[in-house]
Write a structure and sequence with these properties.
The protein has 577 residues and is α+β, with helices and mostly antiparallel strands. It has four domains: 39 residues, no CATH class; 241 residues, Cupin (Jelly Rolls, Sandwich); 87 residues, no CATH class; 136 residues, Outer Surface Protein A, domain 3 (Alpha-Beta Complex). The chain is built from 18 helices and 18 strands. The strands form four sheets. It has an eight-stranded antiparallel sheet. The chain has a four-stranded antiparallel sheet with strand order 13-14-16-15, with helices on both faces. The radius of gyration is 29 Å and the shape is flat. Keywords: Dioxygenase, Iron, Metal-binding, Nucleus, Oxidoreductase, Transcription, Transcription regulation.
Length: 577
C-alpha cells in the first residue's frame, strides 16, 4: 500500500491529520476507477479550482473548445494523451510561434552555439546520430544539414527569441505553478530525428508548419509517471512489445498533449491511418513542465527539516550505528550469509551455524529498526515545516520563472504622494500568480518575477560565475555579523533597528514592507483582477483595522508603487443606462 497502517505507529504522538487522511485514501494516482477519480478531484482542490475563469487564455486555446481546463486536470492530466484538431484561426495562431525562416533570422542576428542552444541529428540505421558540431552555428551550415542532408534541428529555449512562445510559457507557468520550458523541432520531409523514447515531463506540442506523424505507445509496465527520461529505445522492440495508443498526423494548428512516461516517436514520412497526404517538412514547438515536480520531490525538500527536528527531540535518532552495520545490510551481508551457509554444510560445523543464524537475526533487527525510525519520522512533520517547504519551493520558482510580457526592465519609479480622496486613479496588484508572499515579524516579503531575466530562463545551471559566488559569501558573512548582539545596546533596541532596516527593502526580486501591511496586500490579491481607488481600498482596510486603516494603506501603496508591483489607470466614468 501507499501508506503505512496505523497499528504500526501506535506508540508516541498521533500522526499529523494530513498524513492520516492520505493514508486512509490509498488511491494510486493513475487509477481510473470512479473512487480514484473522485479522490483525485478532492485531492486536487489545492491546485485545481472549480472555476474555469482562473486559467489563462493560452491554456484554454491549447485545449480547444471541447475540453475545459477543469476536465483536463481531472480526467486527462498525467493519465492519457490528448489530440486537439485545429479549428478556426488556430492555423494562423500556431504559425506565429515559430518557423524555419524565424530560425534563420535568429542565426543571422544572434550568436547561437551548438550544444548550448542547438542540436542537429538524424535517425538512421535504427539509431539517433548526432552531428559532431562545435562553436557558433551559422545559417549556411545549418541550412546545408537541414535542406540537403535531411537532419532534424532541435532548437532550445525559443522563448528567449519568440514573443508568442514567451507569452505562452509565462501563462503556462501561471497555470501550472512550475517552470515551463520549450524547444523547437524542425524536420525535413521523409525524415526522423529522434529514436522512440519517453520523457520525464508533461509535453504540450503545437504544430506550426507542415505535417508530422506521431505514434504513441503505452508506458513501460511499472514506470508510469517516471522521474527520469528514457534512453533511446529500439524501434522494433517498441513496435512489437508495446500497445499502440495513437497513430496520428498533426496538421498546422493541431496540438498534442503527452503525459510523461508515454513512449513515442515522430516522423515526416507519408501516409498514416489518419492521413494519406504526401510528406512535407515539419516545424513544431514542444512546451514542457512538471520536471521533478512530484510528491517525491516535495518530500526530498521536507525530509531534512523533519530529520533535524527528530534529532533534536528524540534521543533514538542520536544513537550511533552498530559497529558492524556495513555487514548487516546490502550486498556484503548477502554474500557473507550465503558463503557461510555453504561452508557450514561442507564442514558440518554446528558452532559456525549458530553464528550465521545470530548474524541473520541481527541483520533483520537492523533493517526493522531503520524501517520503524523511518515511519516514526512522519511524526515530526507539522504544518509549519510543510509551510516552510512550500515557501522555499515557491520562492525558488518565482525567482527563476519568466517575467511577464513587457516587464523585463525594472518598472519602479518615483511617484507623487497619493491623495486619499482621489477617485480618478485606480490600482490593482500585479497578477498574484507571479508573486509569492511570506509574512514574518520583520516584515511582509513579496517575491516577484517582474525583473527576472528573460534571456536566462531555463539556461545552463553554471551561468553563475565566481564573482557572484564571492558576493554571496560576503553577504552571508555580513548577515552573520548582523546576527551577533551588540553589547552596548539593549536587545529590544536591536530588534527594532533590524525591523526598520528591512522595511522598504527592494532587492532583486523581493520587496519588504511593514508586517502590518499584509492586510492591505491580502485585500489587493483578493480583489484581483478588479481595480480599486485609494478611498475604496482604505475603506476595506479600515473595516478590518479601524484605527490604522488610513496609515496602513498609505504605507503599503508607497512601497508597492515604487517597486512596480502595482498597475494603475485612470478610472473611466460609468455610462448611464
Amino acid at each position: 500500500s501507499c501508506f503505512p497502517e496505523s497499528k504500526s505507529l501506535s506508540s508516541g504522538p498521533p500522526l499529523p491529520p494530513w498524513l492520516e487522511d492520505m493514508r486512509k485514501t490509498r488511491i494510486h494516482p493513475t487509477s481510473s476507477s470512479p473512487a480514484a477519480k473522485k479522490a483525485r478531484i478532492e485531492a486536487a482542490e489545492g491546485k485545481v479550482e472549480i472555476s474555469n475563469d482562473r486559467w489563462t487564455r493560452s491554456l484554454k486555446w491549447f485545449l480547444g473548445p471541447e475540453t475545459t481546463p477543469l476536465d483536463f486536470f481531472q480526467n486527462i492530466f498525467e493519465q492519457k494523451p490528448l489530440h486537439i484538431r485545429a479549428q478556426g484561426d488556430d492555423k494562423k495562431k500556431a504559425a506565429e510561434f515559430f518557423s524555419y525562416q524565424v530560425l534563420l533570422n535568429i542565426l543571422t542576428n544572434n550568436q547561437i552555439y551548438y550544444n548550448e542552444s542547438m542540436t542537429i541529428c538524424v535517425y538512421k540505421d535504427g539509431k539517433r546520430q548526432v552531428a559532431e558540431l562545435d562553436g557558433r552555428a551559422t545559417k549556411e551550415q545549418v541550412d546545408e544539414l537541414y535542406s540537403k542532408q535531411n537532419h532534424t534541428i532541435q532548437f532550445y529555449r525559443p522563448q528567449v527569441f519568440s514573443d508568442p512562445i514567451w507569452r505562452l510559457n509565462h501563462e503556462f507557468e501561471n497555470d501550472f505553478g512550475d517552470l515551463v520550458g520549450a524547444s523547437v523541432y524542425l524536420t525535413p520531409p521523409n525524415s526522423q530525428g529522434l529514436a522512440p523514447h519517453h520523457d520525464d515531463v508533461e509535453v504540450f506540442i503545437i504544430q506550426t508548419q507542415g505535417r508530422k506523424r506521431w505514434r504513441i505507445f503505452e508506458p513501460l509496465e511499472g514506470d508510469e509517471l517516471p522521474r527520469d527520461h528514457s534512453n533511446d529505445m529500439d524501434l522494433a522492440v517498441v513496435e512489437n512489445n508495446h500497445k499502440l495508443l495513437l497513430d496520428i498526423t498533426l496538421q498546422p494548428g493541431d496540438r498534442l498533449y503527452l503525459p510523461r512516461g508515454f513512449i513515442h516517436y515522430a516522423t515526416t514520412a507519408t501516409s498514416t491511418s489518419t492521413s494519406t497526404e504526401g510528406a512535407t517538412s515539419s516545424c513544431h514547438v514542444t512546451v514542457s513542465t512538471f520536471q521533478k515536480h512530484s510528491f517525491t520531490d516535495f518530500l526530498l525538500n521536507l525530509a531534512p527539516v523533519a530529520l533535524r527536528r527528530a534529532f533534536e527531540e528524540d534521543p533514538a535518532f542520536r544513537i550511533g550505528l552498530p559497529i558492524d552495520y556495513a555487514t548487516l545490510g546490502g550486498s556484503s551481508a548477502k554474500v557473507m550469509y550465503r558463503t557461510g551457509v555453504q561452508v557450514n554444510r561442507y564442514l558440518e560445523d554446528v558452532k559456525e551455524e549458530e553464528e550465521i543464524e545470530e548474524r541473520s537475526e541481527k541483520s533483520a533487527k537492523f533493517i526493522s529498526t531503520i524501517r520503524e525510525m523511518f515511519l516514526k519520522l512522519a511524526r515530526y512533520v507539522d504544518q509549519d515545516s510543510i509551510g516552510t517547504c512550500c515557501d522555499e519551493m515557491a520562492i525558488d520558482f518565482v525567482s527563476h520563472r519568466l517575467p511577464p510580457i513587457g516587464r523585463e526592465e525594472p518598472q519602479g519609479k518615483p511617484h507623487n504622494p497619493l491623495d486619499p480622496n482621489d477617485n480618478k486613479i485606480e490600482f490593482r496588484i500585479c497578477n498574484p500568480k507571479t508573486i509569492h508572499i511570506v509574512t514574518k515579524e520583520s516584515g511582509t516579503h513579496i517575491f516577484h518575477c517582474n525583473q527576472n531575466d528573460r534571456s536566462a530562463h531555463m539556461g545552463p545551471q553554471d551561468a553563475f560565475n565566481d564573482e557572484e559566488e564571492d558576493d554571496e559569501k560576503e553577504d552571508l558573512q555580513e548577515e552573520e555579523k548582523k546576527g551577533q548582539p551588540d553589547p552596548n545596546k539593549h536587545p529590544q533596541e536591536e530588534d527594532e533597528e533590524e525591523e526598520e532596516d528591512e522595511i522598504g527593502l527592494q532587492g532583486e526580486g523581493v520587496v519588504v514592507i511593514h508586517s502590518k501591511c499584509s492586510v492591505v496586500v491580502a485585500i489587493l490579491v483578493h480583489c484581483y483582477p478588479n481595480y480599486l481607488t485609494i478611498s475604496e481600498l482604505t475603506a476595506k482596510v479600515t473595516a478590518i483595522d479601524a484605527a490604522e486603516g488610513g496609515p496602513l494603506t498609505a504605507m503599503s501603496m508607497l512601497g508597492l508603487r515604487s517597486s512596480g508591483l502595482l498597475e494603475e489607470r485612470t478610472r473611466q466614468p460609468k455610462i448611464a443606462d
